[in-house]
């Protein structure tokens, strides 16, 4: 009985409930820690990579990237090179055409237009005095500062005599016959001086005109004004070479006075200004009537 009490006391003293619970908790905690740390404890350290291997890896990646992008780069270079080539050829062609047109224009003014008489010899009545007077008018001196007007009744032979005198003088005399339709003035002016109306022409512009039907805006400068500017450029070349201004003859100028009097005023003002500047001399040929009165 005493032994039973001792055992009970021993169990109660050595293995108290509190001690057992703490022991169990203590044993469980390391167990949990071991389970959580097992993956890290069992994993091996990352392999060591040498600098040479790292560089080689980067080079391989870069090479693959270049090979992958190479077709795109080549295509882009081809496109850029093609565009630059087309623009260069276009500019060179435009320069060449402009030089050819300017050379032809300068040669025309240098040699003169030399129009035909427009009448058969059997119907022509010679008037040598008038022809000689006109020839003197068509040969201005270096510092001449006035323009001329030739008037006469309709049917008296003004046009025929003017053409004959222009042809005989030749060099530096440009003859322009004013057409009955003002819309044709630009073409008539351009034809007289061999002006092609191709300022700054290019291959792309020609293709646009022929293939796509592209035309310039209707507000473009009138052809007769463009032809006038071209004549002035050639006139400056002629004067620099020959020491005297060129002559431009406007025949049948009376065709402008009724429907386009403002054009007549522009031509007269331009003739006065350029005579003052000794750039060119204008000669207006007209029937008697309203034109001389308007130009007074």
Automatic annotation (TrEMBL):
Gene Ontology MF annotations: ATP hydrolysis activity
Domain ORC1/DEAH AAA+ ATPase as annotated: residue spans: 149-270
InterPro entries tied to this protein: AAA_22 (IPR049945), P-loop_NTPase (IPR027417)
Record field: transmembrane: 74-96
Any Pfam family: AAA_22
Keyword terms of this UniProt record: Membrane, Transmembrane, Transmembrane helix
Descriptive protein name: 6103_t:CDS:1
